[in-house]
Amino acid sequence: MFDPKELAKTLGDLQEKFQNAQEANKEVVLSAKSGGGLVSVSANGEGEIIDISIDDSLFEDKESLQILLMSALNDVLKSVESNRKNMAMQMLGNLGDFPLKG
User: Does the pTM exceed 0.85?
Assistant: First the structure.
């Protein structure tokens, strides 16, 4: 059986850890490239795009630019999602630390 006071403390600690992890996640930079580096996109751990770099040669080929940009954006968004899942798994791993009272 759970001790209500210990449970409340543990949940409070978990919430604080989650907030700290969210703040730290804003500092994480994830990047993806496409077209051999002709396009690169960077996002923070919250999924906000923070940088896009496009090689000048692509400005003459709109279709290629669009394809490479979509590819890089999709890749960086997959990285963001993977990062979020890893963070959630770490947080859930802490749930096993609940004190039991029997």
Answer: no
